[in-house]
């Protein structure tokens, strides 16, 4: 697994001082638009499917096409342009899968825009939450025919989210160590509160 460290693609609120130095304008308006367009369109079509068309197949194909366009756009275009991250899978000569997670390694202050970074991460995190809600609502309302569609929406959106989080914070070992460090800090804070007491 190959990964380059990134110091210019902020995740929510990270690097507040250096974000003031960065260009706060949207430098890639087309990529920013399509980053949100396909994913929100799939959600809107799903929500309005009964109003727009009573035919299940038409709605299903439209949603799957929008989700596929979103997956390709986010993975191949907007991640690279908006935050300088990319991930992919390659198969070697032995037939083994290798996941590659990269981030742009440059120290130029105007490489990414903090506005574009926020657009990217908010779109990447909020939309899978909708698909999780749709999965549960489909199960509890017994609309089983929609289960394949909402599951596909969840899987495609979650795959991009997982890939970009891995690009941002590193491999699985880094994710585990971050979780352990966070838990350690929280336990330490709680212990200190109890020792200070009333």
From TrEMBL:
Highest taxon listed in the record's lineage: Eukaryota
InterPro entries (UniProt xref): TVP23-like
GO biological process, one term: vesicle-mediated transport
Subcellular compartments: Membrane
Entry annotated with the keyword S-adenosyl-L-methionine: no
Transmembrane segments: 54-74, 119-140, 146-165
One cellular component (GO) term of this entry: Golgi membrane
Membrane topology according to the record: Multi-pass membrane protein
Keywords: Membrane, Transmembrane, Transmembrane helix
Family: Belongs to the TVP23 family.
PANTHER family in alphabetical order: GOLGI APPARATUS MEMBRANE PROTEIN TVP23, GOLGI APPARATUS MEMBRANE PROTEIN TVP23 HOMOLOG B
Name listed for the protein in its UniProt record: Golgi apparatus membrane protein TVP23 homolog
Source species of the chain: Echeneis naucrates (Live sharksucker)
